[in-house]
Amino acid sequence: MKKTVLISVFILAVLSIGLRDQYVSDDDPNLDQMPKSMLDNPPVDPGFPVDGITDDDGYDNFYLGVTFAEPHITMNPRNPLQSFTAFNTNTGFSSQNGYEWTGNNPNFGVPLAGDPVTAYDSLGNLYYDNMRTVGGNIVGTQLVRSTNNGVSWPLSVAANVGYDKNWIAADQTTGPYAGYVYGVMSGGNVVRSTNQGTSFQQVFSATNNLPGMMVAVGPNGATSGGSVYVVTNSGSTFAPTYTFYRSTNGGASFNFMSSQQFVNYVGTNVEGRHSVENMRTRPYPFITADNSWGPNRGRLYLVYAKNDPDQNGSKPSIYARYSTNFGTSWSSAVRVNDDANPTTNNHFMPAIWSDLQTGRLYVKWMDTRDTPTSDSALIYASYSDDGGVSFSQNQKISSAKFRINCTTCGGGGTPRYQGDYDAITSNSVTSLMVWTDFRRGAFDGYVAYYPDYAMKTDISEANINNGQSVNIQVSVPSVRAYTHSVKFTAQLDATPSSGSISLSFQGGLDSLTSYPGNVTLVATAVGTVTPGLYPVSIIGRGPNGTPAHKRTVNLLVNASRISVQTNRGTLVSYTVNGNNYNTPQDFIVANGDNINVSAPEFVTSGPTRFAFDNWSNGGPREQTITVSQNLNLTANCRAQFLLTMVSSQGNTFGGGGYYDSAGTFNFGVTNTSVVNGTDTFYFRGYNGAGAGSYTSPDSSGTDDTVSWSISNAIVEIVRWSLDPPPIGITQISTEVPEKFELYQNFPNPFNPSTLIKYDLARNSDVNIVVYDLLGRQVAHLVNQKQNAGRYQVSFDGASLASGIYFYKIVTQEYVQVKRMLLVK
């Protein structure tokens, strides 16, 4: 009978889905699906350096790589060192030791659409639920199970039916429903598995037209796991109604508890969606329950984001409420974020978890309090130990700000899709949270502990010889709400083939209980140790193994590190012991051995050439070094740039040479006139091409040899003319005259030469011609473009007869004629 019901619901859901047209281009505000463009084109690594794995204070943000969005995380209640997280669409990571994460993408066997959610049950089974598609339409979810923390995933089954936004919860107690798994999905369907995820049956259906249907497990008095809670999200996008249901028989049936309208807006209405700085978001009703045996056992919690004041365009805060009667009624709202100006900063995208053993309620969210412009966020977190009545001082968790509206991430829609949720989980000592981080302008994944301690070592590398020791100070300089002990262990990551390296904590002190504090690790080379590099891993752990952090100190025993590079990156190669490299390299060399390094004399790359100057140790271009200590070697090469000369006539010099940047050199033509057949060509200057090239200021042809310097490759094109250049043009002054003027020649009368002066008020094309009394041109003194200024030109009348002559100046704005007398 159950199979018949499930099949019927499945068929109805598929039929209804067919009417919804999945991944519509107008970005339906009642759906929280990933844009199809992103589903088809997953994010890529932008290639920028990863920042902030361990910040300057010593806190870790564990970097998972370029992932995507909407991560979920869960921790094995039987082993807090084991955790699993997954991002869209199917990018999973598992940890077996609490500080190292490895990729783990199970094969679901069906096309996936994302929204991953995860859970562990009380037996340590790991469940991973993901939306599945048929013909490009979301029709439900597929669930995989692992019994060995993700080492293998032998089980894959169809779990739920719906069209958007799924969620799961597993019973982590030892009560009568231990190992039950519950699932919800937009469309209102509730399913459960009573056989550890082997199969699922639909058990309840409710109205849920907005994304955000959630499920949680809590106790029913003394019956652990005796309450299963479902909350739906329905109504209007900006006036949603949270409706709470409860099952007391392991999800076999559900009863209505209450409907509440606690929220209207989160941020700003942008095309029918809640938006913070153009990042889409939503007031999801996150629920969790206190399963501990503490004073607040059975308390049901609700956390959400909403504006303050609750109107379009205000700034959102994070609010918590609790119910002591299974969701029938709720406490007043408690603001979780404690910044001094909550109404001027954005606080949104919360995630919650109530610890199974302690009952502590954890909350994490995005927060802009550190950015006056509110366009960049950090991850913040807090907790409550009094059943949600009050919350601890908020702590900054992420180590670098990220721009909320990540224009380089890809995304899609307006507002931009950058994920709709993330998650937090916990054990009795600490929580572990996961989020999508945009600090590199990409969809990066990070996890971090809270409460947490910082961990540092005073050195990262040390050199010792046989019989020598080095003290390594391991410290916890500060904590974030952390009150437990920290125990340190140390191990060698490589073992010498002869001799040994002993590691011991000074005075046997390997733990801290108060902070700040430190311990001292002593590393000693015993016997004759094979020369080499021996990394020492120093691991700090809380009382149950978490929080866990690792620092590495490299021991160079009877050896040294030789770091080699050039100052020109990959453009210049070098050799070490006969092998070529073009990137920085480190070489571990036994003390007393030789290392041979060599740099090229020249490396030419197009119009640029790099010429060897020196090694940073002052040695020759090819040298052999006897190693006795660490050494940083840089081959310094100066840049030289090519000068290209282009000339249609005669010969040039200086072209084809590479010249030092900013160094002075000469170039020019060997002759200022060239006879080519029956024509005589006259040199008239240069046209330069390229930044910093030389261009002649006029066409006088007096600059046949130029002294110049360059900072990049240039081309000099020689100008030639069949007209001889004017003789004796001189710029008297660069002072700009008030007006154009042609002056009387001097001397006048003259024999045989005279000077003609003229003023140019603006840059002009200038012609000065001499005529005789019959109007015949006897000389062309000036024919060129000249800059504003004062000039003079000489006129030689030695070949002319005595008499009256006229000289005329013509520019675009000025024409004038004057008379002069030649007397022989």
Tell me roughly what share of residues is in helical segments.
Answer: under 10%
Q: How many discrete structural domains?
A: 5
Which fold name corresponds to the CATH topology of the largest domain? Methylamine Dehydrogenase, Chain H
Rounded to the nearest angstrom, the radius of gyration is 40 Å
CATH architecture of the largest domain: 7 Propeller
What low-confidence regions span 5 or more consecutive residues with pLDDT below 50?
A: 1-26
Note the main sheet: 9 strands, mixed
| N- and C-termini, Cα separation | 133 Å
Overview of this protein structure:
The protein has 824 residues and is an all-beta fold. It folds into five domains: 2-450, Methylamine Dehydrogenase, Chain H (7 Propeller); 458-557, Immunoglobulins (Immunoglobulin-like, Sandwich), CATH 2.60.40; 559-639, Immunoglobulin-like, CATH 2.60.40; 647-721; 730-822, Macroglobulin (MG2) domain (Immunoglobulin-like), CATH 2.60.40.1930. The chain has two helices and 67 strands. Strands 44, 47, 49, 50, 52, 54, 56, 57 and 59 form a nine-stranded mixed β-sheet that branches. The longest helix is centred in the first third of the chain and has 17 residues, at 2-18. The protein is elongated. Residues 1-26 have low confidence and may be disordered.
